[in-house]
Amino acid sequence: MDDMTGPAPEHEPFDGAPSGSTSGEEEPQTASLSADVEDEQADHIRLLRQQGLPKYVMIRGVEAGAMGFGSGDAATTMFKTYIGTQTIDPVDGPVRDSDLDRLHELYIAPPSHTALVKHLNRHGVAVLRGAPGSGRYTTALLAARKAMPHGVVKLDSEAGVRRLAKDDGGLQPSRGHVIVGDGRAWANELAQVLIRLRDATYGRSPLVIVVDDQVPVRDLLEHVVEHTVEDDLRFKVLERHLTVQLADQPEDCRKLLEHERLRDDLRGRRAMAEVAGLATQLARRVGDGEDIDQIVQSLGAEMRVKAVKLLGPPPKEAGDGARKPEVSLWSRAFLLACAVLDGTTLSRVSRESHRLAELLHGVRSPSSVPEMPLFEESVQDWLRRSDVEFTDRDGRPVGPRHPECRVRISQPGLGEAIMEVLWHDHSGARGPLLRWLDSLVIRSEEDIRVLAAQTVGLLATFDWAYVHEELLVPWASDKSEHAERRQFAAAWALERAVVDPLLASRVRRLLWRWSQRRDFHACAQTAYGTRIGAMFPAEALNNLERITGSGTKSVWPAVREIYAAGSRPQVLERLADWSASSRHWLRDDAAKCLQRLSRFGGERSITDLLKEPEPRGALLRLTRNVLLSPSRLHRERGWNTMRQWVERAEDQPELEGLVADFVAELPESGGKGDGLRERFLFYLRLWGYQRRDDKVAARIGSFVSERWSM
């Protein structure tokens, strides 16, 4: 154990060295690669989970964002859906001011809107990157208009952007410009083209290039503005549309929006176009004088009636009373597989439906069990008896033989209605269905595992006691070779169930009990690393502290997810307490979290909190305790963090002063503070030397030296 009062550079020149060090318990380069893989995997799983969760729930601790409402793919679609008039998709043509005015009236500005306008005012060109259907095109139009109010021109996507580098390439002075790169080869070559466009041209003619979230942006970082979909925004969009369309009936509009069932109906709506369509339908029915309660109740009731028809016996033929040909068990299994695996490929759905059919085939029922001859039916027969559609990964319609064909339930909410009708009206299918879902969890790819687990969470909202006993407890306490997968599945199922108001308290109590039982610790920890931890951060952190106190593995993954969901000040305050704890396992997690949380960029960047007094104070305590820790590995993590901040300040000049102030304030008076000052100056010189052209470290060193000499 070293004393920080000594001449650190001479005695321990590599104590905690951030890069190229051979000290500590991990080889740094290998550890960094492992961290990259782990972070990428966590982001991937988080995205898969978010895609299958209801989007209307407001997560406590997350700022409510907003977004545009266009379909995101073409101006014609947007104008036809929202304005009520058709326009021609021009080669290069202006967007009418009247259309932009109408869009502005219905628009809810997302965080990316402000960022995009600022980026255009500063740089003149921006690449708006986001998922199709997320409203990015509408955001681009209105941001371009804000940056250049004399008009907006939609550029021809087919012609591309290379022509814009020419003097007569198509950019018009004093106008904003928008071009969509979805599906275009030139979207992957933007870096080369943007270099050739002059800043002066951008200033006179700002340009927004809209691309999907699959386009790589490694060489475009200085131009990219990310457009993301927040959680409760569909309801906000619905509220805005109804407020505008029912402006002369404000009381009816208020009653409509207060219905929880209306929020339920927004589940599964993938694009803002669907939300706008629902608003138009509701406004029309209110205008026709229909009762508000009946309007809302019919939304869910219509889905249930359709599900009953899909799962029930075939209707009788008119006239002779004979039924249509029997619908086979194969076909029913295929429909159920579509409902669970919504959005996955046709080959996957048909493969898994075979296994479900075999399980259902062994169930004794009041009626005779139909035979399942192999070649009597084809997938086409099943499709005719299922209400599904086919799209590619971007949501565009395709044929069933398309290589990336994905099967989607045709109407949002229908899949949930099918599962509800199956559960309540066909009780003999419950056991086989749960066994099938369990098999998906232990043997399938990640996306299918997530879908299967979330289906279990949905089933728990129908019958909590049954699902809790049959799957949740066995999964959470499993000790077999598949234990880890089942524990994750239980956590993801609870994440889906907790959004039900009737189950939220049960889920919280269950996890509190599990956090006190060693056999359930792993599952409870994983569950707190989902939306549950985001909704109840203080409760989650308390129970995670209890879990880590039992000597189990690090709770870092759960802390990362709570932080990423928006509870950053609370997480930093708790980590600061952990870093001063007498229990070494809490100090271990505090040091690890400091280093790993510093890897977040963008809105989640920990350095953004240097501007806010309360979280900055907690971060100051945490960093100081880690850097002064008696553990060599803890100190190494601390110095790695500080180096990362200094390097980030090189790319973000506005951080330089914030980081310098923070560094200057870290050492306290006394022997340990003097040792910390010496080490800081040493490492700042070392980092500047290692990067050779890095002047930021030198400027920070000069600033803190001046502060410390005062």
SS field, number of helical segments:
33
Strand order of the largest sheet: 1-3-4-5-2-6
SS strand fraction: 5-15%
Radius of gyration: 29 Å
Structural class: mainly alpha
Question: How many E-type strands?
Answer: 8
List segments where confidence is low: pLDDT < 50 over at least 5 consecutive residues: 1-15, 19-30, 56-90, 364-369
Mean pLDDT comes to: 79
Distance between the termini: 31 Å
Can you walk through the features of this model?
The structure is a single chain. This protein has 710 residues and is mainly alpha-helical. α15 crosses α18 (430-443). The relative contact order is 0.08. Helix content is 57%, strand content 5%. The strands form two sheets. Strands 1-3-4-5-2-6 form a six-stranded mixed sheet. It has a two-stranded antiparallel ribbon with strand order 7-8.
Provide a brief overview of the structure.
By secondary structure, this protein is mostly helical.
List keywords for this structure.
six-stranded mixed sheet; 710 residues; mainly alpha; globular; two-stranded antiparallel sheet; disordered N terminus
What's the structural blueprint in terms of helices and strands?
Elements: H1 8-11, H2 28-52, H3 75-83, E1 92-95, H4 97-106, H5 111-123, E2 125-130, H6 136-147, E3 152-155, E4 176-180, H7 190-196, H8 199-204, E5 207-211, E6 224-227, H9 233-245, H10 250-257, H11 260-265, H12 272-287, H13 292-311, H14 329-340, H15 346-361, H16 379-384, E7 388-391, E8 406-409, H17 414-425, H18 430-443, H19 446-462, H20 464-476, H21 483-497, H22 504-514, H23 521-528, H24 531-535, H25 537-548, H26 556-564, H27 568-579, H28 584-597, H29 613-627, H30 632-651, H31 654-665, H32 671-691, H33 696-709
Parallel strand pairs: 2-5, 2-6, 3-4, 4-5
Antiparallel strand pairs: 1-3, 7-8
